[in-house]
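subagent[fold] <- orchestrator: predict structure for attached chain, return tokens only, no commentary.
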Amino acid sequence: MVEKMTINTHKGIDYNLCGKPVELKNRYARVELTTTSVMTVDHYKLIHGGFVFGLADHAAMLAVNHPNVVLASASVKFLKPTQPDELLIAEANVVSIQEKKYQVDVTVKNNQHIIFEGQLTCFILKDHVLSSHKNNP
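subagent[fold] -> orchestrator:
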């Protein structure tokens, strides 16, 4: 269950694809995703790494928890494969803040094994990244 802290970012995200928030504190988020067969890439039932990265990114955004947060860069390691019907747990911790730049460490585990780790660099923008885009209201 999500703590009483309000989610301020990524409110329209699909929890089935990028994970469901289960704990949210100041500068910390824990997000869970159960993998499914539609996420696989081959007959071995390997889950595409993009879903694992999406889970990690979602957790990082929630750890920053600002409406205008964006991902600028990421340094990540995929350590173990995953398959359908596995519960993945991402934990994100903001480890440093320099004005509008946030460094967020993220780990993703399944069955207590770390399958992904990375440091994501996020920025808080003055306005939404698409607010000045001509096709937006």
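orchestrator: received. Logging for downstream: The radius of gyration is 15 Å. The chain has one domain: 15-124.
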